[in-house]
Every structure is written in C-alpha cells, then in structure tokens.
Design the sequence.
C-alpha cells in the first residue's frame, strides 16, 4: 500500500472523493451505507468526513472485496458484451 500523507483532519465530500479516487456520489453512497463515517455541523449542509474515517475505510477488508467484485463484474460484462458484438457481425 502506498503511504498517504494527510494534512487536514476533516474533509468535504469532494476532497474525500479525490483521496479515494472516485466520484462524489460514491462518497455519498458510502456515507449512507455507514461504510464511511461522516457528520454535519448543526445547521450545516455539507457532510464532513474525519481523516480517521477515511483511513479506517481504506484499511477495511470491505474495500478489497468491493474492488475484487467490481473487477469480476466488469470482466463478465465485457465478455458478454464482446461476445454479443461478435454474434452480430456478418
């Protein structure tokens, strides 16, 4: 694993998305599912994600499983998509 240097203690969704190399909507999904702990300040609208929450998520076994499942599904989709394209060729 590549060491990560973090200089902030709390991140906005867009910043967390950059750190985790994903889209902001993925961060919202992780927050809703409870996989990424976040909070809103009283009266605030923006989600705030503590540094430790990001570190815990990165180190969790779930992220490895999700990555492996995503890769498998992507390969299955590509296989059937390419197979279907070959069937329609003259």
Sequence:
């Amino acid at each position: 694993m590549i060491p990560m240097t973090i200089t902030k203690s709390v991140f906005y969704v867009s910043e967390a998305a950059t750190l985790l190399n994903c889209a902001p909507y993925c961060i919202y999904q992780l927050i809703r599912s409870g996989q990424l702990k976040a909070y809103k300040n009283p009266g605030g609208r923006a989600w705030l994600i503590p540094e430790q929450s990001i570190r815990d998520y990165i180190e969790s076994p779930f992220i490895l499983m999700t990555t492996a499942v995503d890769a498998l599904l992507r390969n299955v989709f590509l296989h059937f998509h390419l197979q279907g394209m070959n069937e329609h060729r003259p």
Notes: Helices lie at 13-20, 24-33, 51-59, 61-87. The longest helix spans residues 61-87. The CA atoms of residues 35 and 46 lie 18 Å apart. The chain has a mean pLDDT of 78.
